[in-house]
Amino acid sequence: MALEDIFSVAGSALNAQTTRMNTTASNLANAATVAGSEDGAFRAKRAVFKSILADQMGDSNAGGIKVEKLIDDPSPIRKMSEPGNPLADKDGYIYLSNVNEMTEMVEMMAASRSYQNNVEVVNTTRQLMMRTVDMIKG
Amino acid sequence: MNMIDKALGVHAQALSVRSRRMELLGLNIANSDTPNFKAKDVDFKSVLQAAHSSNLSITNKGHVPLTESGSPDGEMYRIPFDTSFDGNTVEMNVEQAKFGQAAADYQATLNILENRIGGIRKALRGD
Asked: Measured between CB atoms, does A61 come within 8 Å of chain B?
């Protein structure tokens, strides 16, 4: 355990938060998609994080964090009667995605705040490391 | 070597404990969104006491020597102020405050070490 291990920890967190931000972007981009069946409708994705223990991390002896899996948002799919739509099923229904724009915006802000926190950790650690190196320079 | 060790005193060990504390706090901040993650911290006092009272000697061949990893590392789980839905006990504001404090502590220890090293350098140079 040393100061430089913080970089790998914070780096893995930056990576995970980027994945989360990407998922949010994908959800927002797909918010307006429609499908011809309930199974085919787009479901919002959520990144689930998992803490990695030190011995699973490989070269570093600090822990870290990774995206364990992407899960589908369990909220229900809305269907709408729109017989004129070319994608409509035989009863004239189309199926909308279950993306909630408000939730996605909140998710995006949370991810970006977490990202900033980790960048701050990296900055502070770097400054302290530089000072430690300067100590022997005199 | 012995002279330098004496001149630096406990501060060299303190610096490594402080850096370990910063690492744990960094780990907490990194895991602020991980379900069921429990925040940890180092109890500086207990680690320092353990470093001071390391005068345990092997008087019987059945004794097991204290190793680096076997020594009490003072890691403790943090008691959160509030509970959360996902079982995560990281409270970002608390962690940020502690991280800032830990960074200041690290700098303080660095300052002391810088002064000590400056003193040694002065003595060696002799001017």
From this structure: no
- Given a contact cutoff of 8 angstroms between Cβ atoms, the answer to whether B27 and B39 are in contact is no
What is the distance between the alpha carbons of residues A78 and A98, in angstroms, rounded to a whole number? 7
For chain A, say whether B31 makes contact (Cβ under 8 Å): yes
Question: Model pTM greater than 0.90?
Answer: no
Closest CA to B23 of A54, A94, A131: A54
pLDDT of residue B68: 45
Q: Which of A13, A62, A65 sits opposite B23 (nearest CB)?
A: A62
Q: Is the pLDDT of residue A120 over 70?
A: yes
Chain B positions touching A12 (Cβ under 8 A) are 30
Task: Give the gap in angstroms from C-alpha B114 to the nearest C-alpha of chain A.
Answer: 6
- The interface predicted TM-score of the complex, written ipTM, equals 0.75
